[in-house]
Here is the input.
Amino acid sequence: MAAIPRLYAAEATGGLEEVVVTAQKRTENLQNVPVSITALGTEKLQELGVQNFDDYVKFLPSVAYQTGGPGFAKIYMRGVASGDNANHSGPLPSVGVYLDEQPVTTIQGPLDIHIYDIERVEALAGPQGTLYGASSEAGTVRIITNKPDASAFKAGYALTGNTLRGQGGYVAEGFVNVPVGSNAAVRLVGWSERDGGYIDNVPGTLSYPSDGCLSNFSPPAPGCQVSP
Here is the structure.
């Protein structure tokens, strides 16, 4: 019985890990920011295997979305929609997306940034127009990259392979951080991705309207091989 109080005391003094955000344009503890924020840090992003928009948005409870593919996502926060009609000259989205301090919001949807060497992803629910301007009436999603570090040389890489219908694919990622002075550094990040094909395009088995062999209403031309 004497060991129980000591065990409880050890657990009680553990505390919570501090999460630092820059939602208000300055570095602050997440618990001290008077804004509804969800933040995914570097370790959590790596643990979840996040690589793109479809991956990280699933772990942001304040964000709802529809996607038609990379770069064609519609993001909603707090039930606010812009009334868009998929016309590229239509209204701007109601949720802004930023890469560091650069807006990457477009009329058709935010740019699908590859998630690697990212410090954190922040979701700020509610109007953010004061700090983030237009397209932030319902909220803002921020992707914060790791900054150059002048204290030490750093480098890393990751290589993932996959197979789809017998076709091989891969994702190769890497970064290097090189100090060039006591207060300056250069950080380079690169990645390459290849996906296996979804369709087996066997030569000579498919005909298209542009090849002169389309014959839905008449016999095929001489020399044309039309698939059933």
About this structure: The two ends are 80 Å apart (CA to CA). The longest strand covers residues 167-179.
